[in-house]
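User: Predict tRNA (guanine-N(7)-)-methyltransferase's structure from this.
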Amino acid sequence: MPHPAATATDTAAAAAQHGAPAGVAYPKTIKSFVRRAGRTTTGQAKAFEDLGPRFILPYSPQPLDANAAFGRSAPLILEIGFGMGEATAHIARVRPDDNFLCCEVHEPGVGALLKRLGEQGQTNIRILQHDAVEVIDHMLAPGSLDGVHIFFPDPWHKKKHNKRRLIQPPLVAKLAARLKPGGYLHCATDWQPYAEQMLEVLSAEPLLANSASGYAPQPDYRPLTKFENRGLRLGHGVWDLVFLRRA
Ligand SMILES: C[S@@+](CC[C@H](N)C(=O)[O-])C[C@H]1O[C@@H](n2cnc3c(N)ncnc32)[C@H](O)[C@@H]1O
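Assistant:
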């Protein structure tokens, strides 16, 4: 049965994507991630124990009460796939007036972000250690977001794996529906074919308008991470895209 937060368009788009007739739930979704093995360090494990109860929200297929989850009312930004949380912690620090709801499935990454929160004392982040697509489908109501960050999503280089990429029409339509008018969707990638796919898919979404003509200048809140600096030193490009939800 579709969840209350899912729209009829979501259901039809997802069914069509998976070849099921409209209105029929498809049996298995293609995931945008694989659960990587990775060691959680002692420091990260301690951060889970000490800070997990404060910063990790349980996944529950119920619309999220963001004001209750953050203990205040503030603009809500969703981040999908924060990795080790370097950019996430920086952005939350330079934008203290926003609330950041951050999804990541990789446990050591969650531990690493918790550790940073402990060290830096930020309180405007909540973490969902869960598939962001399910969070969007089941926990986020239409018009509930002021922004979305998707930085360096897995590029799934091989053609046969391209279907796992996050930035595809059905997910973009769901994100656009959950943004408030004037809200933004900010993506960044260092893989040119994916940048081109992003530009094509985002430009084709009727609810979104490009804030730039083509790729956007890097917004000043997004830091250059260690990973990105290494790429830039090797001569790799980086492409930012910022699209706005139409009224
Ligand atoms: C290539 S990493 C980039 C991490 C980070 N944004 C950065 O810039 O360094 C992509 C991350 O997205 C996460 N991810 C992919 N699909 C996801 C999903 N559906 N829900 C939550 N996390 C996801 C992966 O676990 C991975 O850590």
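Residues 8-17+42-245 form a domain with the Rossmann fold fold (CATH 3.40.50.150).
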